[in-house]
Amino acid sequence: MTDSWVALEPGADPAERARTLRRAHATFTEAGTVPRPVRPVVADSWRRSARAGVGPDGAACVELADGDLGAYRAEHPLARVMPLFRELMSTFALDGEHLIAVCDAHGRLLWVEGHPATRRRAGRMNFVPGARWAESAVGTNAPGTAVAVDRAVQVFQAEHFARRVQRWTCAAAPVHDPRTGRVLGAVDVTGGDGLAHPHSLGFVQAVARAAESHLSLLIPDRPAEGTAELTALGRDEAQLRTGGRRIRLSRRHSEILVLLARHPEGLTGDALLCALYEDESVTPVTLRAELARLRGLLGPGLLASRPYRLTVPVESDVAVVERRLAAGAVTAAATAYTGPLLPASQAPAVVRLRRRLADGLRTALIARRDPDLLADWAHAPWGEDDLDVWRALAATRPTAAVRARLTALESELTAPAVTVRRDHGHRAPAITVSPRSGTGGTRPRPQPR
């Protein structure tokens, strides 16, 4: 196959490929191995689906309905480009007896439109607005996988993880916020075998890019002229936009920029050294070298010294979440929170800020008791083991899937910690593995011997 992201290479027999895929799917569900010719993107998705506890006989759950769905859609950024989606895709969908669908970043379907008969058939498997089609909920499918891997994908028949979806073929592409680059959701076309063609993949990619271009003209509230924008949530390497440039920062430079953005008055070298390094043996010379490299990256005049400070105002996504929380705008704060602050950072001051921000938001979500906001947090990577949030979600939306996940989490918490030694004849730290709770994103850490 010339392109592993295309479901069928030119000249392939769809019926024969479907039979081969059904056998491969049966092998995976029974033995856990993925035989050829399953594409790497599909094999990886099957494995993620299995790790998430998805069963091949599962079905999507409707999480938003009626007024809740309407209110959520009205506030979603992709509502602004729905007229564009309809203009570009409706004729294609009606003529081909396909559906067009738009999901959010968590794989929840917001709009499903197209051929009436096809909509009725899709409704039998809950491919309807308000249903969650994330990989972690129903396994491999084009919209859910597109937001999971952040690129356009096709899924042909038995490449779907759930058996009841295996008569369908779909193609989807993620749509990004043109300013921050974060995934807003995906646009999808779903129908018959004819969609397993390079043209359908190119089509949804082109539609997604058109939507991003349109959004760039519609997004209001740009920072004032001369203000730099720092994006550091949900990513290990922050991004700075300044003077028309987009600068990707190293991990250490990301930490420095986050701290200087929070202290426009500046930080002394000693204060910055303590904020960045756990190891007290790190010398000021090391820090000065990092700052010299950062100054060269930013360009002249942006980083001053004595004390170290930025010479232009900086608007960060961290500050946006904090302001919205302080104002009681919990929904707006949750929307702006795209993940933990610099998740891999171990800089003491960043760790404290990361925990404070996440704890403040999750506390507000639990107090708010909005099932949609709680579900978004619980199904995000940083909230999948958050027991308190899952309990709050079960109290407000006690579906079978939510109760099952809560039961599994509570069972994990009652299990004793297990010490695993992975030395294999070499010196290695013991790792204590214990159940996770509270703020997501925590990893087991080596314990001293």
TrEMBL record:
Methyltransferase among keywords: no
UniProt keyword annotations, A-Z: DNA-binding
Protein's UniProt keywords contain DNA-binding: yes
Domain OmpR/PhoB-type, chain residue ranges per copy: 244-310
Region (Disordered) residue spans: 421-449
InterPro entries found in the cross-reference section: GAF, GAF-like_dom_sf, OmpR/PhoB-type_DNA-bd
Name the UniProt record assigns to this protein: GAF domain-containing protein
